[in-house]
Design goal:
This protein has 331 residues and is an alpha/beta fold. The protein has a domain of 220 residues: 3-Layer(aba) Sandwich (Rossmann fold). The protein has 10 helices and 13 strands. Strands 3-2-1-4-5-6-10 form a 7-stranded parallel beta sheet, with helices on both faces. Strands 7, 9, 11 and 13 form a 4-stranded mixed beta sheet that branches. Helix 2 packs parallel to helix 3. The radius of gyration is 20 Å and the shape is globular. The protein starts with a strand and ends in a 5-residue tail after the last helix.
């Protein structure tokens, strides 16, 4: 039976890779995009999908988008580490989630998979890994992105209690081919261009986008209603991550460990520097504060229940680098 599948955030990193995958299944795939969206990430599958024009922040634009849909993947969201876009984070991540779930419920959608973030789970510490039952503690850092993703999960939980069939998938730090906006891929580009003379003292859980896509589809098929599934792989200190990227790219730079207090000093001095662009854009105090913490996670639940596969993270770094290099996106 051909299913109608709608993906919000269809031009985003995860959303576009999911659209690509589903467009080859013979189902009726619809991607929700804004009229102003750049469709570059979908150009290879535009002839196999239907574009739905709307905006998750505008409830009226969603009234007919989900009519007749069997499955909805809610991938739309804004990822931003800083304080300049707090109102937009609230509108997209919180109100947008509420609008999508409300419209999907009214349309009688059979099942929804909501894409969350590890910032909605919490901060771990260097010697332990958080799982799906860990209490949220990211409020120890003032990060609006984390708060909005946490609240979005609460909205999903409320809708499930009302009878909506929804599963939450929580991707870790996602690398992979197709990251045209250099989300996680920014660190590969900046190591390659020798813009990271320092590394933060924290660590992060790394996963490849294709494993995330596999897991989203598996969650739609067999995830338990109301459950959340962390999709992660290796837990890696930033020192090791940067060294691995150097190994993969063949570009080496002397790099020093930088405690948070030192980052504050350098950040202040950079305000007076004419060579600010010689340092990575990742070097802002919000990002550096997060990167100074440990975001380590246990994905055994997803392995057990969704069949999530594992691969060494270096393979993902290699594929991502080659994808950028082949398209001359690292110049």
């Amino acid at each position: 039976m051909v299913k109608k599948i709608v993906i919000t955030g269809g031009t985003g990193f995860i959303g576009s890779r999911l659209v690509h995958r589903l467009s080859g299944t013979g189902n009726d795939v619809h991607a929700l995009v804004r009229s102003s969206s750049d469709l570059t990430s979908l150009k290879e599958c535009l002839d196999r999908i239907t574009l739905e024009f709307g905006d998750v922040t505008d409830a009226s634009s969603l009234k007919t988008v989900f009519n007749g849909a069997d499955e909805v993947y809610h991938c739309a969201g804004l990822t931003y580490m800083g304080g300049k876009k707090n109102p937009l984070l609230q509108r997209i991540n919180v109100e947008g989630t509420r609008n999508v779930l409300d419209a999907a419920r009214k349309a009688g959608v059979k099942r929804i998979v909501h894409v969350s973030s590890i910032t909605a789970v919490g901060i771990s510490g260097s010697n332990r890994k958080l799982d799906e039952e860990s209490p949220w503690n990211f409020d120890m850092i003032e990060l609006e992105y984390a708060r909005t993703k946490h609240v979005a999960e609460q909205i999903v939980t409320e809708e499930v209690k009302k009878g909506l069939d929804c599963v939450i998938v929580v991707p870790a730090f996602v690398f992979g081919a197709g990251d045209i906006n250099f989300n996680a891929g920014r660190i590969i580009k900046d190591v390659y261009k020798r813009k990271l003379p320092f590394y933060p003292l924290g660590g992060v859980c790394v996963i490849d986008v294709e494993i995330v896509v596999d897991s989203l589809i598996a969650a739609m098929k067999k995830g338990r209603t109301g459950e959340r599934y962390i999709i992660g792989g290796d837990n890696v200190p930033f020192r090791e991550l940067s060294q691995t990227i150097m190994k993969v790219t063949g570009v080496h730079q002397f790099s020093l460990p930088l405690p948070l207090w030192g980052a504050h000093v350098i950040s202040y001095l950079l305000r007076f520097s004419k060579d600010r662009n010689r340092i990575s854009k990742l070097f802002n105090m919000t990002m550096f504060t997060v990167a100074s913490k440990y975001l380590y996670f246990d994905s055994s639940k997803a392995q057990r229940e969704l069949g999530m596969r594992y691969e060494p993270y270096e393979q993902s770094i290699q594929r991502t680098f080659e994808w950028y290099r082949d398209r001359r996106m690292l110049n």
